[in-house]
Amino acid sequence: MANANQNNPRKEVTYALVGVVVFLVLVLIVALSGYFRPGGHNPAVAANDEVNSSNSAEATAQQAPEPIVSVRDEPIEPIVVEAVAEPKKVALGKMLWFDTRLSKSGTLSCNSCHDLAKGGTDNIPTSVGYNWAEGPINSPTVLNSRYSLAQFWDGRAKDLMEQAGGPIENPLEMASSHEFVVKVLNSIPEYKALFHEAFANEDDINIDQVTSAIALFEETLVTPNSRFDQWLGGDDESITAQELKGYQLFKDSGCVACHNGSAVGGGSFQKFGVFDKYTTQNLAEGRYAVTGNDDDKHLFKVPTLRNIDLTYPYFHDGQVDSLADAVNIMGKIQLNRDFTSEETADIVAFLKTLTGDQPQIKLPKLPPSNENTPKPVPFEKQS
Amino acid sequence: MANANQNNPRKEVTYALVGVVVFLVLVLIVALSGYFRPGGHNPAVAANDEVNSSNSAEATAQQAPEPIVSVRDEPIEPIVVEAVAEPKKVALGKMLWFDTRLSKSGTLSCNSCHDLAKGGTDNIPTSVGYNWAEGPINSPTVLNSRYSLAQFWDGRAKDLMEQAGGPIENPLEMASSHEFVVKVLNSIPEYKALFHEAFANEDDINIDQVTSAIALFEETLVTPNSRFDQWLGGDDESITAQELKGYQLFKDSGCVACHNGSAVGGGSFQKFGVFDKYTTQNLAEGRYAVTGNDDDKHLFKVPTLRNIDLTYPYFHDGQVDSLADAVNIMGKIQLNRDFTSEETADIVAFLKTLTGDQPQIKLPKLPPSNENTPKPVPFEKQS
Question: Least enclosed by CB within 10 Å: which of A161, A243, B65, B113?
Fold first, then answer.
């Protein structure tokens, strides 16, 4: 029989052919089995599905387009989305972000004043807190806040983690206490398990873990791929001639001296009212409240101009509704310049090109309280 | 040359082999090109991506598992998810659901009191409205509300569309007016375009369109695939022996007489306090407030028990935090029965099997207001 094979070259080749066909069919089967398994085909999509289903942040990184690298020599840099380094903490941070049990009343969450459906703001002059308290200052957007040199208008928190602890205890905001919040979270087994996993220990949940998870979630809240960023990347068609003219004026008139970098702001404290006073009922002390230096009176952190079309009303007191009015006021009191109405319109047109891709947020499912969970106090009972 | 080929069978077979290999390689290339195109591999995932990216409802239908059909003869039916019939209206309804501009203050949305991260409720006894007003009654869950015979605890709205108009104008809730809300929406070009497309006309937006879009979104908010539904579908392993015992007792003791159907409730009005009075500071009139019939005093719509583990606190006044306490009270005053602590635990265990898959909600991006948009009034200024 061995001889028969050796003596028949046609049969030999046919055997080889059958072998090759069987091999290729097997390759096809393996390929297609992955192909028809939902999410099994594309590593990026699969990873993202998983992150989403485990209540994680939307992992902007995975969904983001190719990072834009500026090909122009400009004082504004495109936003580059970084990979989420600690997805479990970010996922937990997102749950805490939406959890109203961080407030005394059980009705206010981080998202109440920094609404991710509305550019990370509440779009009112000053926020509504516990018992309908009126906040002292406008809620700045959380979007791209990671690029700020410090947090709050007066920079009193050095970073997002330090910031996150503030509103929880502020009696005009969430009006709770760190102690109460930690008791609530420790009473909920699902939260404990998620904290243990994210922080790789079996300790009781503490407030530093809470604020660090929230801060890590906030760090993912960036808005890449604005039309202006596309222009920085070399796409001449992504902004109009008027928008480009507005940008030129924005540079030439000096706005860019403070509004620059990735966030188009957030990099320094500046005096509000250089050439003229800003007239407001709410002339906060600004940076002075932190440092006590007379030189710091009415200095505020320069706000980001990213997504400025979404983050009205404007300024620390939220007293200006129109972007055109805001541009005119800034020209007058900061630069001693009266823009013509055409110039103002050009700058406004440019500013609207700074709206980027908003974070894709899938609402988390919050684990329920139980009989051991301290109860919220929505209404103070009269004694 | 033709002859040479005909005379060499080995060459002939080699040619055939090359042809087959080229063909199979081409098949592989076509297969893999689809494979590596994001979303291009799986029609279901692709469709869902598209729905999400166009701000639509999460189209629970697309993500839902195979519908469960009951194989058991039981008074409770599994939830069957229907395809979204009008996705454009549903997408619009989702935006309106999260839009705080439906409230006078600009801070309250439908989601404030029916939080989709928390079982469609606010988890406090009575809700917080404009100017920190205390609502008169517990906010019922929006989840599976489509299965109710009418809306509100007293059934005063015949359907979800009629219900949706109520809280907008209620001075203790959103405290706005239909007129104001319609003015706000008509001032926003993105909203106008979406309404025109969804309702296939170029008319100004009217309140009926607003409430019908919200109602259509709410109709998608169902929670299929609970462990109990899996058991109804024939999976004996999906619930434990204790949970099954609890269900038997739930039937045998008479709970199921009112808590039945797809929503395990919602199908009738019943007197609260048949054998004994319910003691509360908030003994609302119930159905009597709608009909004026003496027989309807203290009749309430039977609430759904779906997701009851998430929708605490319980009863129309939200005065009961613990599910065990709620079961005991119901046994006593509705059925004249004192459950043993073991019986109560069994029923509670059964009730927790009714938590289903929560709707997958991607937060919408709300279009910004502009200079023509009427402003919210978060704080009443003292005159």
Answer: B65
